Amino acid sequence: MGDYDDLSTARLTWLVLDRLVPDGEEDKARAALIARDPELKNLVELGVITQDQAIATLRARELRHRDPDESVIWIRQPVAVCAALVFLLFLVVSILG
């Protein structure tokens, strides 16, 4: 793949978090991505967190890479409410019609 410093942050994030980096280049790509986040870079350099923990932190920040239970839970309640309202509307129309 080559030089990860030339890639945009969005593209590099996509490559690393979607695990699309060629074999043998994972560490280089991860390090390039972590280097773009000053806070994570500092924590990794100080040994407070590992590179894997830094990538997990980046993954948690990205909505599409979060645990599905956490990222779509907000949609379950509105869907149930809408379904109940449609059912009630159907009942009202059936009784009045």
Would you kindly provide a written description of the structure presented here, covering whatever features stand out?
With 97 residues, the chain is mainly alpha-helical. It folds into 2 domains: 1-66, no CATH class; 70-97. 69% of the residues lie in helices and 0% in strands. The chain is built from 6 helices and no strands. Helix 1 (9-17) crosses helix 2.
Domain count: the total is 2
User: What is the approximate shape?
Assistant: elongated
**Which structural category fits the helices and strands?**
mainly alpha
Number of strands: 0
Biggest beta-sheet profile? none
Proportion of β residues? under 5%
Q: Unreliable runs, pLDDT <50, ≥5 residues? A: none
User: Percent helix among the residues?
Assistant: 55-70%
Beginning-to-end CA distance, first to last residue: 66 Å
Provide mean pLDDT, rounded: 83
Number of helical stretches of at least 4 residues: 6
Order of helices and strands: HHHHHH
Provide the gyration radius in Å: 22 Å
Brief summary:
The protein is mostly helical and 97 residues long. The protein contains six helices and no strands. It has two domains: 1-66, no CATH class; 70-97.
How are the secondary structure elements laid out?
Elements: H1 9-17, H2 26-35, H3 38-46, H4 51-61, H5 68-71, H6 73-96
Task: Sum up the structure in keywords.
mainly alpha; single chain; about 100 residues
